[in-house]
Amino acid sequence: MSNTNGFTAPGMNEESATRTVKALSQRLTALLDLQLTLKHIHWNVVGPNFIGVHEMLDPQVDAVREMTDTIAERIATLGGVPKGTPKAIVDSRSWDDYEIGRALVNDHLVALDKVYTGVNGDHRDAIEVLGELDPVSEDMITGQLAALEQFQWFVRAHIESASGELKN
Question: What is the CATH number of the domain that holds 127?
Fold first, then answer.
Protein backbone atom coordinates (compact mmCIF):
# COMPACT_ATOMS: atom_id res chain seq x y z
CA MET A 1 0.00 0.00 0.00
CA SER A 2 1.34 3.41 -0.93
CA ASN A 3 1.83 6.15 1.64
CA THR A 4 1.59 8.82 -1.05
CA ASN A 5 -1.19 10.32 -3.13
CA GLY A 6 0.32 9.15 -6.40
CA PHE A 7 2.66 12.11 -6.73
CA THR A 8 5.93 12.97 -5.10
CA ALA A 9 8.88 15.32 -5.45
CA PRO A 10 10.27 15.45 -8.99
CA GLY A 11 13.08 12.96 -9.44
CA MET A 12 11.91 10.65 -6.65
CA ASN A 13 10.21 7.40 -7.53
CA GLU A 14 7.01 6.23 -5.85
CA GLU A 15 8.67 3.41 -3.88
CA SER A 16 11.34 5.71 -2.41
CA ALA A 17 8.70 8.30 -1.58
CA THR A 18 6.52 5.70 0.15
CA ARG A 19 9.44 4.41 2.23
CA THR A 20 10.52 7.98 3.06
CA VAL A 21 7.01 8.95 4.13
CA LYS A 22 6.86 5.87 6.35
CA ALA A 23 10.16 6.77 8.06
CA LEU A 24 9.13 10.42 8.45
CA SER A 25 5.70 9.45 9.80
CA GLN A 26 7.39 7.46 12.56
CA ARG A 27 9.53 10.48 13.46
CA LEU A 28 6.45 12.71 13.38
CA THR A 29 4.69 10.46 15.88
CA ALA A 30 7.73 10.39 18.15
CA LEU A 31 8.13 14.15 18.13
CA LEU A 32 4.43 14.86 18.66
CA ASP A 33 4.58 12.53 21.65
CA LEU A 34 7.80 14.20 22.89
CA GLN A 35 6.26 17.65 22.58
CA LEU A 36 3.31 16.63 24.74
CA THR A 37 5.56 14.83 27.23
CA LEU A 38 7.79 17.88 27.62
CA LYS A 39 4.78 20.10 28.32
CA HIS A 40 3.42 17.52 30.78
CA ILE A 41 6.72 17.58 32.67
CA HIS A 42 6.75 21.39 32.55
CA TRP A 43 3.37 21.43 34.31
CA ASN A 44 4.15 18.70 36.85
CA VAL A 45 7.75 19.18 37.95
CA VAL A 46 8.28 20.30 41.58
CA GLY A 47 11.02 20.64 44.14
CA PRO A 48 14.55 22.04 44.15
CA ASN A 49 15.60 23.54 40.82
CA PHE A 50 11.94 23.69 39.77
CA ILE A 51 12.13 27.08 38.07
CA GLY A 52 15.29 26.29 36.10
CA VAL A 53 13.81 23.05 34.74
CA HIS A 54 10.36 24.58 34.23
CA GLU A 55 11.89 27.38 32.14
CA MET A 56 14.32 25.03 30.32
CA LEU A 57 11.46 22.94 28.95
CA ASP A 58 9.39 25.56 27.12
CA PRO A 59 12.07 26.33 24.50
CA GLN A 60 12.40 22.58 23.94
CA VAL A 61 8.62 22.30 23.45
CA ASP A 62 8.72 25.16 20.93
CA ALA A 63 11.66 23.67 19.03
CA VAL A 64 10.11 20.20 18.90
CA ARG A 65 6.80 21.72 17.74
CA GLU A 66 8.72 23.38 14.89
CA MET A 67 10.34 20.03 14.05
CA THR A 68 6.94 18.36 13.80
CA ASP A 69 5.74 21.05 11.42
CA THR A 70 8.82 20.63 9.24
CA ILE A 71 8.38 16.85 9.09
CA ALA A 72 4.65 17.10 8.38
CA GLU A 73 5.27 19.53 5.53
CA ARG A 74 7.95 17.25 4.08
CA ILE A 75 5.51 14.32 4.22
CA ALA A 76 2.95 16.42 2.33
CA THR A 77 5.60 17.53 -0.18
CA LEU A 78 6.28 13.87 -0.95
CA GLY A 79 2.57 13.21 -1.51
CA GLY A 80 1.94 11.69 1.90
CA VAL A 81 -0.67 12.59 4.47
CA PRO A 82 0.78 13.70 7.81
CA LYS A 83 -1.24 12.36 10.73
CA GLY A 84 -1.17 14.31 13.95
CA THR A 85 -4.38 13.36 15.70
CA PRO A 86 -4.24 11.93 19.23
CA LYS A 87 -5.55 8.58 17.94
CA ALA A 88 -2.90 8.46 15.20
CA ILE A 89 -0.18 9.13 17.76
CA VAL A 90 -1.37 6.42 20.14
CA ASP A 91 -2.05 3.90 17.37
CA SER A 92 1.33 4.30 15.71
CA ARG A 93 3.71 4.54 18.64
CA SER A 94 5.62 1.52 19.88
CA TRP A 95 6.44 2.78 23.38
CA ASP A 96 4.51 3.12 26.61
CA ASP A 97 2.96 6.36 27.76
CA TYR A 98 4.94 8.61 30.08
CA GLU A 99 3.73 7.52 33.50
CA ILE A 100 5.07 10.12 35.94
CA GLY A 101 2.63 12.76 37.20
CA ARG A 102 3.49 15.40 39.75
CA ALA A 103 7.03 14.57 40.88
CA LEU A 104 10.41 15.93 41.84
CA VAL A 105 12.79 17.42 39.30
CA ASN A 106 15.19 14.47 39.52
CA ASP A 107 12.46 11.88 38.91
CA HIS A 108 11.21 13.67 35.81
CA LEU A 109 14.66 14.36 34.40
CA VAL A 110 15.83 10.76 34.81
CA ALA A 111 12.68 9.63 32.96
CA LEU A 112 13.07 12.38 30.34
CA ASP A 113 16.66 11.29 29.70
CA LYS A 114 15.30 7.84 28.81
CA VAL A 115 12.69 9.40 26.52
CA TYR A 116 15.40 11.37 24.72
CA THR A 117 17.55 8.25 24.44
CA GLY A 118 14.71 6.50 22.61
CA VAL A 119 13.79 9.42 20.37
CA ASN A 120 17.38 10.21 19.49
CA GLY A 121 18.29 6.59 18.83
CA ASP A 122 15.31 6.23 16.52
CA HIS A 123 16.27 9.48 14.75
CA ARG A 124 19.72 7.95 14.10
CA ASP A 125 18.08 4.82 12.69
CA ALA A 126 15.89 6.98 10.45
CA ILE A 127 18.94 8.87 9.18
CA GLU A 128 20.45 5.57 8.06
CA VAL A 129 17.26 4.57 6.22
CA LEU A 130 16.75 8.00 4.69
CA GLY A 131 20.37 8.12 3.51
CA GLU A 132 19.44 5.46 0.97
CA LEU A 133 16.18 7.15 -0.06
CA ASP A 134 16.12 10.93 0.17
CA PRO A 135 19.04 13.24 1.01
CA VAL A 136 16.68 16.14 1.72
CA SER A 137 14.81 14.21 4.42
CA GLU A 138 18.07 12.76 5.73
CA ASP A 139 19.50 16.26 6.12
CA MET A 140 16.34 17.50 7.83
CA ILE A 141 16.36 14.69 10.41
CA THR A 142 20.13 15.09 10.94
CA GLY A 143 19.64 18.76 11.80
CA GLN A 144 16.84 17.89 14.19
CA LEU A 145 18.99 15.26 15.88
CA ALA A 146 21.68 17.85 16.60
CA ALA A 147 19.14 19.95 18.52
CA LEU A 148 17.57 16.92 20.25
CA GLU A 149 20.97 15.71 21.42
CA GLN A 150 21.69 19.15 22.83
CA PHE A 151 18.37 19.08 24.70
CA GLN A 152 19.34 15.70 26.16
CA TRP A 153 22.66 17.17 27.23
CA PHE A 154 20.77 19.97 29.04
CA VAL A 155 18.70 17.34 30.86
CA ARG A 156 21.74 15.25 31.70
CA ALA A 157 23.57 18.26 33.14
CA HIS A 158 20.94 18.26 35.90
CA ILE A 159 21.25 14.55 36.73
CA GLU A 160 24.99 14.06 36.25
CA SER A 161 27.46 13.81 39.10
CA ALA A 162 30.78 15.66 39.09
CA SER A 163 32.45 12.40 38.01
CA GLY A 164 30.16 12.10 34.98
CA GLU A 165 27.80 9.40 36.25
CA LEU A 166 24.11 9.75 35.47
CA LYS A 167 21.49 9.19 38.16
CA ASN A 168 18.98 6.54 37.29
Answer: 1.20.1260.10
